[in-house]
């Protein structure tokens, strides 16, 4: 009995050791190892200020309720994607190797005046600058430092994601508008003036005539303005509309949302596959190609419905077909599924449906 108790206590102690040291302790050591491997410790969604100094320029970004804004070198809307990409890359960056270095030797690794620097801030809670330098001679890594005394190796794609031009960073769509809330569209083009009104899930044409519109063609206008991107920003301020043929636009789109908010954008005529555009809310002038304007350059026939008539075929229970001097009468039988002739003979359902 005594030996059994001793063996039980030994087993209990061994089990406690395995649980607290090997299992729980192993989990803690894993967390500590992962934390030590990380280059930075921050919540990427909490950062509200980013400053980047790179070969392609110096840029300052600030996060607002409407998304990221560029503050330098110009004040304009930013493309959220590239900025959140940099934050995501840095928040997950792991150091592959580290070594100490004297400050005067930083230039040897491209971490001196030529380094690409990224400064991240979150109010007064977080403020960290990362320097990224030369690519390593072996492997796809670059040298980096956050304190000028310890150099680490991180994947080179992290530096590449921060080395972008002004056009890469900026918002590249022709205008901001809530596509799903648009209820009216007025389009003026070389082919005429067209006015569309949303009726439930369908579009109606009210100008130049009253008829049902081709939903796919009207949706294509909104989709192009929502998804299409401009080729280039050619002027930060619209000081010379004549130069860009915008004093008398060839294309004009005006939209009205359910909240009665108005949105508008103009495009010039096309020359050498180039058209210039300007939206009503921003001062910039941008460039698009003729393909961008294709949904806006349709004929009346293209925008109107091609349906001969409109009906719900599932609700049809009888047919009268006339051909020359002949009349054919069909109706559904009592099952409501099968079609029969007036004399009761069954018809071929697949031909009728």
Topology, please?
Blueprint (H helix, E strand, L loop, with lengths): L1 H36 L11 E6 L2 E8 L2 E6 L3 E2 L2 H13 L5 E3 L15 E7 L3 E10 L5 E5 L4 E6 H7 L3 H4 L12 E8 L2 E8 L2 E6 L3 E2 L2 H13 L4 E4 L15 E7 L4 E6 L7 E5 L5 E4 L11 H4 L14 E6 L2 E7 L6 E3 L7 H4 L1
Antiparallel strand pairs: 1-2, 1-6, 2-3, 3-4, 5-9, 6-7, 7-8, 8-9, 10-11, 10-15, 11-12, 12-13, 14-18, 15-16, 16-17, 17-18, 19-20, 20-21
What does this structure look like?
The protein is of the alpha+beta class and 353 residues long. It has 7 helices and 21 strands. The strands form 3 sheets. It has a 9-stranded antiparallel β-sheet. Strands 13-12-11-10-15-16-17-18-14 form a 9-stranded antiparallel β-sheet, with no helix packed on it. Strand 12 and strand 13 (211-212) form a beta hairpin. The protein is 23% helix and 34% strand. It has 3 domains: 49-169; 179-303, Immunoglobulin-like, CATH 2.60.40; 313-352, no CATH class. This is DUF4340 domain-containing protein.
Structural class of the helices, strands and pairings? alpha+beta
Give the H and E element order.
Answer: HEEEEHEEEEEHHEEEEHEEEEEHEEEH
**What is the oligomer described by this structure?**
single chain
Helix content: 10-25%
The DSSP helix count reads: 7
Query: How many domains comprise the coordinates?
Result: 3
Percent in strands: 25-35%
- Mean residue pLDDT: 90
* Main sheet characteristics: 9 strands, antiparallel
């Amino acid at each position: 009995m005594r030996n059994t108790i001793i063996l039980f206590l030994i087993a209990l102690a061994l089990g406690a050791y395995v649980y607290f040291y090997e299992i729980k302790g192993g989990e803690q050591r894993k967390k500590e190892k992962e934390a030590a491997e990380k280059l930075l410790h921050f919540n990427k969604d909490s950062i509200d200020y980013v400053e980047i100094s790179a070969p392609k320029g110096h840029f300052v970004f600030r996060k607002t309720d409407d998304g990221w804004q560029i503050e330098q070198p110009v004040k304009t809307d930013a493309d959220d994607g590239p900025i959140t990409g940099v934050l995501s890359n840095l928040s997950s960056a792991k150091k592959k190797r580290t070594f100490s270095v004297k400050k005067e030797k930083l230039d040897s690794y491209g971490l001196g005046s030529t380094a690409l620097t990224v400064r991240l801030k979150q109010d007064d809670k977080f403020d960290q600058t990362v320097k990224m330098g030369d690519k390593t001679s072996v492997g796809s890594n670059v040298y980096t430092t956050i304190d000028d005394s310890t150099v680490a190796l991180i994947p080179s794609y992290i530096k590449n994601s921060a080395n972008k031009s002004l056009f890469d960073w900026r918002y590249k769509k022709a205008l901001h508008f809530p596509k799903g809330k648009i209820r009216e569209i007025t389009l003026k083009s070389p082919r005429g003036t067209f006015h569309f009104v949303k009726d439930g899930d369908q579009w109606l044409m009210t100008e130049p005539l009253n008829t049902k519109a081709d939903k796919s063609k009207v949706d294509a206008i909104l989709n192009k303005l929502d998804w299409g991107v401009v080729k280039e920003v050619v002027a930060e301020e619209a000081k010379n509309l004549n130069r860009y043929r915008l004093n008398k636009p060839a294309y004009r789109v005006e939209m009205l949302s359910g909240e009665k908010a108005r949105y508008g954008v103009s495009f010039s005529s096309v020359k050498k596959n180039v058209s210039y555009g300007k939206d009503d809310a921003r001062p910039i002038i941008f460039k698009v190609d003729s393909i961008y304007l294709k949904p806006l350059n349709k004929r009346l026939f293209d925008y109107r419905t091609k349906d001969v008539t409109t009906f719900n075929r599932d609700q049809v229970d009888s047919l009268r077909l006339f051909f020359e001097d002949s009349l054919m009468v069909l109706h559904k039988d009592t099952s409501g599924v099968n079609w029969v002739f007036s004399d009761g003979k069954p018809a071929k359902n697949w031909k009728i449906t």
